[in-house]
Amino acid sequence: MSKSKGIIKSLFEKPWEKDQIVIDNEHQGQTLSLSKYKVGLRTIMVVSTVIFSLFIVAYSDRMLVHDWRSMPEPWLLWLNTGIIILGSLVFHFTKLASDKNQNDKTKNGLFLVGILAYSFLIGQLLAWYQLMNSGYYATTNVANAFFYLFTTLHGLHLIGGLYFWGRTTSKFLRKNSKAEDVKHSIELCAIYWHFLLAVWLVLFGLMLFT
Amino acid sequence: MPVTVAIVFLLITVGSVVFHFWSPWWWTEVASNWGGMDDTIILTFWITGFVFVVICLFVSYCVWKFAYRKDRRAEYKPEDNKLEKRLTWITTLGVAALLAPGLVVWNNYVTVPENAYKIEVFAYQWGWKYRLPGNDGVLGKTDIKYISDENPFGLILEDPKGKDDRLVDGDELHLLIDRPVKFELRTIDVLHNFYVPQFRGKMDMVPGIITYYWITPTKTGDFEVLCAEYCGSGHYAMRGRVIVDKEQDYKKWEAKQITFEKMLAKNKNIKNLQLAKSTK
Amino acid sequence: MSDEYEHKLEAKSDIVSDASSVGTPGIDSVPEAEIPDQELYHSHSWWTTYVFSQDAKYIGVQYALTAVGTGLLGLVLSWLMRIQLAWPGLGWLEPAAYYQFVTMHGMIMVIYLLTALFLGGFGNLLIPLMCGSRDMAFPYVNMLSYWAFVVAVIVLLASFFVPGGPTGAGWTLYPPQAITSGTPGSNMGIILMLVSLILFVAGFTMGGLNYIITVLQLRARGMTLMRMPLTIWGIFTATVLALLAFPALLVGCLMMTLDSMLGTSFFMPAMVSLGEKLSYDGGSPILFQHLFWFFGHPEVYIVALPAFGIVSDLLSVHARKNIFGYRMMVWAIVGIGALSFFVWAHHMYVSGMNPWFGFFFATTTLIIAVPTALKVYNWILTLWNGNIQLSLPMLFSLAFIVTFLNGGLTGLFLGNVTVDVPLSDTYFVVAHFHMVMGIAPILVVFGAIYHWYPLITGRLLNETLGKIHFWITFVGSYAIYFPMHYQGFVGVPRRYFEIYESPYIETSTLLLNQFITIAALIVGAAQLVFLYNLITSARLGKKAEKNPWKACSLEWQTPQMPPEHGNWGKETPKVYRWAYDFSVPGAKEDYIPQNVPPSEVMGAKVEKT
Questions:
Q1: Does the pLDDT at position A4 exceed 60?
Q2: What is the pLDDT of residue B134?
Q3: Cα Dmax for chain C
Q4: C284-541: CATH number
Q5: Cβ atoms C44, C127 nearer than 8 A
Q6: According to a count of CB atoms within 10 Å of the terminal CB, is the N or C end of chain B lower?
Q7: In which residue ranges of chain C is pLDDT below 50?
Q8: What are the chain A neighbours of C250 within 8 Å (beta carbons)?
Q9: Residue A71: its chain C contacts at CB < 8 A?
Q10: pLDDT tens digit string along A43-85?
Q11: What is the residue range of A110's domain?
Q12: DSSP secondary-structure letter at C110?
């Protein structure tokens, strides 16, 4: 097991001192006891969080100008929110199933997650269609522009997630359906799905309450 | 070799100091109340110049003194807490000495005196216009939507305070010496910046909002106005003139500037004339 | 020299003597590796070896060559601009072309040369080697990162050939001007620029992921964070900054692209442009500036921190002395990195933002000067009592200290809000940032290339040509930028196509412009000497012995030099010490590489006595 002591604390080590040398020689060369994929995922989530936070800051700043006209939220968005929550839940149970090596449950779970994710994307497109039909174009008001921007970016994130979901699923199907082989991938995808759910809830809430 | 390198570094240091004191390039004489900015710069020069010279001399000395010799070993010294702490404190003090006077002057810069005379500086690609408050001492409200050939400043017609505003035709502005003036900076297209080198002040003009800064002209004379924020391909040619007058000259000039009301009437006449011509 | 320090010295030699007296074989023992060795992709064809390579070393060289190639274009653009400034009467350029060159020069140098070179180039080359890993964490993603960069460069260059030409909005791309018709390239040019930047950010994020995870998770056994060379600390921290700061650029670019293409009003207020009322309304140009500088200021440190790290190592190796105050250097790098997110609006003192922000940002800006100053002190204290070899990397490092010091100190002028008012948007600013983030980091780049060239080619660069290159570059660029500050004092505004004779600008200022241009042309020409050296020495240079500079860090300790695929042969190295065991008292040689076990050091000692 690698030592995952606080990075901050390690900054005070004196690497040239005798006692420290003895300790350091034992080190395995790894700072966090996580797989590199998990660290990678976390890094990506941090970067995405920064992107969305900056958009939210821009939104809040722009909102204060006199020409801001809030946009109505079509009922479809509530349905889509339900779908994405469901997707996250199913992924959670799929992860539990793969932990217990339940092959069939895992397989069904993965399929269901895919279907839900695609339905969400289609649902978002339909919401766009509804809005444009009622005359809410990106150029009509900047509030609408923010809506289209947010949903596009969130959708792109989901499409990126679907790429990894696809890889995991196909790997699972190829390898005689052993849940163990894809356990780690499923766990990572599930985390990402929960992350996208959280992002969506924040964005939707923001647009709802302003 | 080490001696040569040390000497070159030494020469660069000495050369920089010599250049500083004896080169012909220096700022223009200040013509406003912002001599405090110049003083802050001079103070900054002394502190940073001292650090620059000391560190450069130290480097030259090291290059010469500790040049490589096969039979010598460098000292093994990972760190020296006491020394590093001392250096931290000295630096912090030096930095505070720079910052404190700077903040005082900045406070003055952003606090406009109440009696300041307000002038609107109006920027567009690529030129300057000015608007003076009329006898009521208040600038009328404007809106970009009102801008037209007849109403180049976009004054809101319903606002009575705008009627007596004097519109300066041409890009020459006169200021009265020793009277604090607040420039209300307005642009109708892109970013600009109203800059007169001798006044030292500067502030960007941003479409959609009115920015400002204030000065008190302290010298009569004829100064050049430049745009100091890049504004497209005509940026370099966006110049104007500011003339600081004594009271008599200033009054003469002010009287010549046409009020908004008169201009509207004049435009109307011209229009009627044209109308009459075309119907003939 | 305190007693405390003497005591530590004893502690140091204790290890040596203790060990020799006991002589247990256990002294070198390192626990078994718990982390399985990294699986590597092995290429099978010329294409996958040299073009779509997944080996970080190759990717690093690819990044470096692409970045330098683009940078040469930036250099040529600067010549064209300088000639215009010095001899406006020649009618050499149109104003539009001048502004396009200014813009492209700035963007190329900051993003496509320096950022790509330090992180993509040196990061890829050095991270795995210095950390003792076989390769980056995700070699395939790493390859994608490079190719995204290539596409970004191609899109950028393509903008030279579209109708209207490249954007002339200035590298800060401030709206509304960037996308309105008074600015050259406001249709196609600006959009290609924005797309190119978005691609760059996407590509960089993929690379950055690799740099971070490799440093954190894939180091050799025994390589604790505090045993890493400062180069790695610099690149690592810069990468963290970049991952957090580039999103701001991305957000700004995306919103401006929409403003430009769809006509949304994120940044665009109601305006009358050249007599024509535009349909925008309510947007905030200052919001863009906040986003831009929230990226832009950390960007300065994204370039500077790797340079800080590299120059620390160069100074240490070539002065045969450990870097002075290693811990302080690490803290300073991390501290500067963290603080760099709280100073952005010092670029906006006169932008029309709420003037009261000036107090806050002036204070934070001057606070950041403290850790920066400490770094300078520690560099020069590393020279003190050193054994200084005036090799090319050392010369460049010394020149870096002078130029960085100069540029850093003028930063104290501009950071101090009051002083900034008369100086902002003048040539003082131009001189300052060229000195501090142009010349200083480039000198480090040169030093680093002279230092690590043998690691890539197995040969040394020609020393005589190198000296010519060094002296012209250093003295020449100082001659360009030092006097330029004084033009700023006179009040010559930046981004002026032509200055004219003004009542306050005397003829001598114009003469100074000619002097600067001549110096710039000479310095530029000297880079040809460097390129010639770079190309010919790859074949004809003197063969370098293994570890030619007698450095301690791991990149020189590979079984083969240049290192082969996988870097370390059968087994990855074990690390027994920090990267700065130079001139250790009692050791035979004046350096002990990080992977030399204590028993071998003992042996040396026994031999000696």
A1: no
A2: 85
A3: 90
A4: 1.20.210.10
A5: no
A6: C
A7: 1-25, 603-609
A8: 51
A9: none
A10: 999 999 999 999 999 999 999 888 888 888 888 999 999 999 9
A11: 36-209
A12: I
